[in-house]
Amino acid sequence: MSAPLTRKGAATRERIVTGAATLLRERGVDQVSLDDIRAATATSKSQLFHYFPDGRSQLLLAVARHEAQQVLLEQEPQLSDLGPPGSWSEWRDVVIARYERQGTRCPMSALTRQLAPSHPEVGAVVAGLLTEWQRRIEAGLARAGVEQARTRAIIILAALQGGISLLLATGDSTALRVALDAAIADLLETPSGAP
Fold it and tell me: For the chain, percent helix, then strand, then coil, each to nearest 5?
């Protein structure tokens, strides 16, 4: 959309995106139509196409951006608090609980699979999510005084992504738990002399 949205317009657009995201999480991308989204968000057809003139694919891309933000928001405040002893185990528990709740249905993966062939910008959404996630982990490692924080952040994120992929394929979170625990094992230890 070229013209900036009014506050009311931005709220309406956000209502459509969050409503669509909720439906897609519950039913899956292939099971939700624009009519379903209109009904769930109390949106008229003209409103829907006002905010998403290119239709379903444009709305799905907006939902993918929303879901990417949710991945990080659902790790707060633990993700921003990474650094001191105890913070790593709290964050790990939040991440594992989030993905266990999600199970084998990942709206982000489903959206990117469906959009990727015709929407190259979806790659930028995924890349942006992973870059920001890595940056936030790296900041926590720096606060913890870890050397080569960037390299360690890459290792931790790779362990996370590998574990998440296996959970999505099998429905079993064991690989996610094992990989993440191995990647942050030394950060889970209490410093000597600490209670």
Answer: 70, 0, 30
